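In response to the reviewer comment on reproducibility (Comment 2.3), we provide here a single inverse folding case reported in full, input and output, so that an independent group could reproduce the run without further information from us. The structure tokens appear first.
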């Protein structure tokens, strides 16, 4: 990478020097509605403008507005883009605002999603970086898609500019700039609550991009609740559910098994094929460190879309499931719940639904135990902690069910608190000792009097085969309480 570009990367982004205005009277405290803006980024000359035109033709402008950021900036600046790039940081904000602020306001007014092509950096033919997008502009996006290009293809876009030998010598530089931009944007978006996806070759086809942009309209927390509710009500509308008094809701990773299914998925990806700029491998443990909001879980789903084609994802989920073994007590509990007419087990997984459907197939429970979860954006329902709590409320109020919730970590706290009875599965006695107990466990003990602690040691043999009367670690008293009927039967006095 050239010295000029290295300096530019270190100095990203340039601050905007805008003198604040002093209001003559107090301003309202209600923040303005933010437009949903999808930024389509890529290397200059790679074809983002062409992709924008094709997507525009495919999905139309009824609910979407489209804008070529460079064309808008050139039109707003007397003399065009080259004059704009010659301006200092004191003049640029005026023309950026003229070019894009009006577009964003129009999107808000018409309740449309804006799709705009942008460039993180612009490079001269002498391979100098002469312009970068400021942080203020980047923060206006709610989603960023980056159009990736294998560096071996770049000669098609630069034909005639370089001699063949020079093209081959410079392709690696362009590839390096692309890697730098992707790494920067992934880190920036994670820090600023913006979802980020690289349009890898299998995801970069026009129908796929169009589908993804359409989905951004409905990939919201409100819609997510609706999708999860629909799946739950589908399970609760089966003939069996008519006899159900008690629903047993299970978190998956760490509760049914000590394994982390998301880690098992990414363990199959070679280091050189891992997503560029990813700070750590997605896993349930990472959710606790990075946050457990809807956008955090959505970002993991988008990483699946970015890195795995449909058939590949199905294969890695099957491989991940093959490595999972269940706690014998939990496998026995699932079977007991299915064999008891007034109880119904359901798995709510914040990981990939397909992994746990494969696990259930291995233990002979496929189709018998309901699984609600995501993994791909077509699955819709993403099991965030808030959504798990919402589903418990629906079961209690709409279905009049008694809910037992089984979880294993901090992300399960809302589910455990809202349930009628809660069971925290731990894999070590150290969590239950006073001197090393996590802070969240102290809080949970105070506000969740219905909580039961159960230790299922990870060094004990795991199970794939069901054996009756295997619930020794859960204990007879707790098992009896779980399966006690709340309502008298017609045969009881």
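Designed residues, in position order:
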């Amino acid at each position: 990478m050239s010295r000029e570009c290295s300096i530019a990367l270190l100095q990203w982004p340039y601050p905007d020097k805008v003198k604040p205005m002093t209001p003559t009277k107090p301003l309202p405290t209600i923040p303005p509605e933010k437009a949903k803006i999808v930024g389509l980024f890529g290397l200059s000359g790679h074809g983002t403008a062409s992709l924008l035109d094709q997507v525009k033709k495919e999905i139309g402008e009824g609910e979407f507005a489209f804008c070529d950021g460079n064309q808008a900036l050139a039109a707003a600046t007397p003399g065009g883009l080259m004059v704009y790039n010659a301006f200092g940081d004191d003049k640029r904000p005026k023309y950026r605002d003229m070019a894009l602020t009006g577009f964003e306001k129009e999107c808000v007014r018409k309740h449309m999603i804006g799709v705009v092509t942008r460039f993180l950096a612009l490079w001269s033919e002498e391979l100098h970086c002469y312009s970068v997008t400021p942080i203020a502009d980047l923060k206006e996006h709610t989603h960023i898609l980056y159009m990736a290009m294998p560096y071996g293809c770049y000669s098609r876009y630069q034909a005639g500019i370089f001699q063949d030998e020079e093209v081959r010598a410079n392709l690696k530089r362009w590839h390096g700039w692309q890697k730098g931009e992707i790494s920067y944007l992934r880190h920036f978006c994670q820090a600023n609550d913006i979802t980020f996806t690289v349009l890898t070759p299998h995801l970069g086809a026009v129908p796929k991009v169009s589908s993804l942009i359409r989905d951004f309209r409905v990939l919201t927390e409100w819609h997510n609740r609706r999708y999860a509710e629909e799946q739950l009500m589908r399970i609760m509308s089966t003939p069996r559910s008519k006899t159900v008094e008690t629903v047993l809701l299970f978190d998956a990773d760490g509760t049914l098994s000590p394994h982390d299914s998301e880690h098992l998925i990414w363990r199959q990806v070679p280091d050189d094929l891992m997503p560029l700029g990813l700070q750590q491998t997605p896993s349930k443990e990472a959710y606790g460190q990075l946050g457990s909001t809807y956008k955090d879980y959505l970002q993991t789903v988008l990483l699946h879309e970015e890195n795995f084609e449909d058939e590949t994802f199905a294969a890695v989920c099957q491989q991940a499931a093959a490595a999972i073994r269940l706690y014998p007590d939990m496998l026995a509990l699932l079977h007991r719940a299915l064999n008891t007419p007034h109880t119904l087990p359901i798995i709510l997984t914040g990981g990939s639904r397909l992994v746990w459907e494969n696990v259930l197939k291995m233990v002979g429970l496929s189709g018998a135990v309901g699984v609600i979860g995501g993994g791909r954006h077509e699955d819709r329902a993403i099991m965030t902690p808030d959504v798990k709590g919402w589903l418990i409320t629906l079961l209690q109020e709409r279905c009049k069910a008694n809910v037992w919730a089984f979880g294993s970590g901090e992300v399960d706290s809302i589910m455990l608190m809202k349930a009628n009875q809660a069971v925290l599965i731990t894999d070590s006695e150290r969590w239950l000792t006073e001197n090393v107990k996590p802070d969240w466990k102290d809080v949970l003990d105070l506000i969740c009097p219905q909580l039961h602690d159960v230790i299922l040691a990870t060094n004990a043999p795991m199970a794939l085969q069901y054996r009756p009367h295997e619930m020794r670690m859960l204990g007879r008293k707790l098992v009896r309480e779980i399966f006690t009927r709340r309502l008298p039967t017609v045969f009881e006095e």
